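Subject: Sanity check before I submit

Could someone independently write out the structure tokens for this chain? I want to compare against mine line by line before I put it in a report. The sequence has 266 residues.
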Amino acid sequence: MRTRDFSRAPAPARADALVVVERPGADRTWARATRRAARAADGYAWSAGVRARDGRSRVRGRVVCFATRAQADRFVTHLDPAQDRWRTFHAEADGYSNGVWRAEGDVMAHIERFSPLSGETARGRTPPRVAPAPSRRDGPRRAPSGTSPKPPPTDAPRTPAGATAMFLGATRYRGPHSWLVLAREWYPMVAAMRRMTGYVWHRVYWEPPFTLGTLAFFADRDALLVFARIPAHRRLMTWITRDRRYGTGGYIRVHVAGPGAAGGTP
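---
Independent answer below. Compare away.
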């Protein structure tokens, strides 16, 4: 369900900004020092590590969530522009929360319509309804316009600091059995996402006892919103929100990079 109130959701959902900091070729010593610096920073809310590749170069980094945009901006002033690269993302006011993490009431339900793409907004078009996706057993069907996975262009960003949009979300599952059922939809969805134009990088994190979360980065906001429309994602979301058999809460927040949000080495 759509919301602007994340007061009952976990710390990452309540953060108004985040910073991605990376260093090509960095070792574990740098990674540990960056984690300590992030946790000591004013307004620190939550963080997760980054391990990616930029061509042949190994990249380590960290995604750091902050309570306010000003605190995120202050954090980057302590980074090394000669060796680090970074990007600051700001959370959109509108997001999604469900179940035990929903401030407006303990409701577990899906949204009625997709968020509009930039072209739909420019033309004044209402985005399509979140119609049930075809079952994988029904075989391939034509995907909605603009949602077909395509090979990424060769000049696409390959690490989170090169992206300009991302989502941060999590679901509280009931137990290991729910994870086993989730796997049937999760792996096909990730495979489709990785083939999409605009996909950059993602990782999954765990919080005890049974919460699984995802950070996913895209070249731009439209690419992120197109991902939400692919059949594999629609199947997973409608599955988890139709009742409480497998999960009891969830949230999603979208973050976008503003002008002048990047810095450091190219």
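---
OP: Matches mine. For the report I'm noting this point. The radius of gyration is 18 Å.
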